[in-house]
Every structure is written in C-alpha cells, then in structure tokens.
Amino acid sequence: MSTVVVIGTQWGDEGKGKVVDLLTARADYVVRFQGGNNAGHTLVVGGRKIILHLTPSGILHPGTVCLIGNGVVVDPKVLLEELERLKDFGVVVTPERLVVSAYAHVIMPYHRLLDSARENRKGQGRIGTTGRGIGPCYEDKVARTGVRMHHLLNEAALRRRLEEILEEKNFLLSHYYGQAPVVLEDILREYTDYGRRLAPFVSDVSTRLEEALKSHKAVLFEGAQGTHLDVDHGTYPFVTSSNTVAGNACCGAGIGPTAIRHVLGIMKAYTTRVGGGPFPTELSDQIGEHIRTCGGEFGSTTGRPRRCGWLDLSVVKHAVRLNGLASLAVTKLDVLTGLPRLRMAVGYRCQGTVIDRLPPEMDRMEQCEPVYEDFGGWEEDLGQVRRFEDLPIAARRYLEAAQDYLGIPFSIISVGPGREQTIVLQDPFSRAS
Length: 433
Fold this sequence. Notes:
This protein is an alpha/beta fold. It has helices at about 15-25, 75-90, 110-120, 135-145, 155-175, 185-200, 205-215, 250-255, 285-295, 315-325, 360-365, 395-405; strands at about 1-10, 30, 40-45, 50, 65-70, 75, 100, 105, 200-205, 220-225, 260-270, 270-275, 305-310, 310, 325-330, 340-350, 355, 370-375, 410-415, 420-425.
C-alpha cells in the first residue's frame, strides 16, 4: 500500500489544495480527516479557479474516490451547494466517487448562531473565527451532545436528538446572547431533507479505507488548517477547534498509525495568517502589501485579507517535529520575485534570550522578536521553470538555506498557480510504498 498525509506547516493557507491536486494523479483515494468548511482549498485547472471547502481536492480527477472522514464537521447545506458548483466544472459527483462518514458530526443552525454571537460579545478580544459554527460543533462532539450524519437519515432519531439539545441551546441564545431561539420543526424539516439528498453518500469510511489498503491502493490524506492552528500544539487560544497535525489522520479517518507511510509538509515561501494571534515576522508595510497583492492572499472562505510576513523557519521546524515530516513541498516561490532583499527567521529574541521556538504563554509570544538571516532577491520570472537547476541562483540559495536549517529534503517546489507550474524533485508516493 502507498499512503501519504499532506499537512500544512504554518498557520494554514500554504497551498495544500494545489499539492493535493497534483498528487491525486497518483492516488486512488483522497481523504479529508479534520476541520470543516472554515477551510478552503483553491485549485486552478485550465485557467479556471475553483474553491473547495468540504469535498476533497481529488474530486477533479475522474478516477479518484473521495472520502470525508469522521473527524470532519459537515455543514450539509454547504456540501450540497458545493456539489452543485462542481457540475459547472463538468464534474458530476456520484456516491461511487464521494463517501461521507456516517460518524461525522453535523454543523447545525444553532452552532453558527452561537459562533457569531460569541465572537461579537468578545469585541477586541475576538479570536477571528469564520463564524461557520465549527467550534461549537466540535464542543458538542466532545460534550456528547452532537448530531451525526446518520441522525439525518432517520427523522424520528433526529427529532429525539434535537429535543434533548434545543432547550439548552435556546436558553443560551435567548438569555445570554439576546438572540432569537431556533425552532425544532424548522430544523427538522430542513435537515431531514438534507439527509434524504445525502443518504446515498453516507457510509462507513473506516471500512472503505480498510478495503482500499488491503487492496494496495494509493491513499492521500489531506489536512485542512496548518499545524500551528492545532488545538493542542498551536498558538493557543488563537487556534482552530480540531487537531490539525498528521497524527489526527488516523483518528479522523479511522485507520491505525502503522498504515501511514509518508508525511509531506506544505511550506509557503513566506508566511501568512488569518485572524488574530501572534505573528512575529508580520510585515505591516509596502513589502507585506506587495506579497498580499502578488500572492492573492485573501481568505478563500471569508475573503478577508491575510496577514503577510517573512518566512519563519522556527515555526516550520516545530511542524517538522510534531508531524514527523519526511519531506516538504514549497509553494508560491514565484510571489517573492522582484523583492530586492529576502529575510527568513531562524529564532526569536525574547526577554533578552534567543530561543528557537515560540513559548506557550501568550504574553511571552507577543514579546518575541524574530532573529533574521538575509538573502538577495531575484527578478527572473519563475513560471516556466521546471528544473531546480534552472531557478535563479538567488532562489536556489534561499531554498537551500531553508532546507539545511530544517534538515529534511524538499520534494516539490511550486512556481505558479497552475498544475504544470511545478518542479517535482521526488514523488512522495514513490517513498510511501
């Protein structure tokens, strides 16, 4: 069997969608194992852009089966809308090509309402969530008060579940947040309809994966947000509500850890972040604006402008350890073209001491100043480059310095948004057999 897990090494938006789309040409199955529609993977195919929020990126490859694992929280309305949009690209998604875990938890209307109300109440202290209901849905999962996909297929079971849940939710909405309560019958009618439409797609993803692995199929697991948004290992509390590291591919899809053969990290050639939280290398100047404009750094889910800054190698090295990365894919190297000087952080100066990773305490994180190494830039267009040796010498030096610091090889370098604008140094699947 060949199994590859693709993980973001920064704060998300590293370009995982393009890399997954590229690797899917070798994959029989592509599996999404965590997160919800708060993440978006942007793909450019034939000059057309499509953004996928829930459906695994492999859906654009006709021979690939896509699985949404139990670790994902599913907004059924969003999923159905996404399947309709795919039709515009000539992709008709059938139950033979998309399977949704019966154990995946469902984002309900009260989750979205609570998410937005909570953020609004925090004012200046808000975390910067997308308001999609992801956090409250994961809270209910852990509190054992959630609704799962199989509930949508049985109206009587869904009614009983909602009767147990809505008294508390409506009390919070009405008495604490000053919102109108939700109506059981309205939710029941809407969500049983979703269940009827999605029923052919709902099954046991874990057993499907077992069959695939026994048949020596190639399986690609795609994460959503980046490593440093992990609820345990990220810059807490400015994190997402799930585990984004490679180890969660097992829990969120229903396989054992011995099934994983290769973990590929995705590193953007600079750093971005959406929402609040520490960001030591952030650039609030013309260079940051240049990177944002040239890189199209606006949230694929919310449209919010991303915060942009220099590459932070300390952040990536932390991700190398947490995920057990075997190799790295570098994305958006072309965005740095035209900048006369480039910088990358190799540590932090915090309270007079140089350290190699961000401390866990938020107040200390905010005091950390990056320790930089400087590099010359390049002017040459990278879009047509297909071999590492043909990159400008300044670009090669930049990449080689990063690789030496991180201690693991680069397997893929992206020099543009298109599928073909890629330098493949080593096929991750060839190392995953």
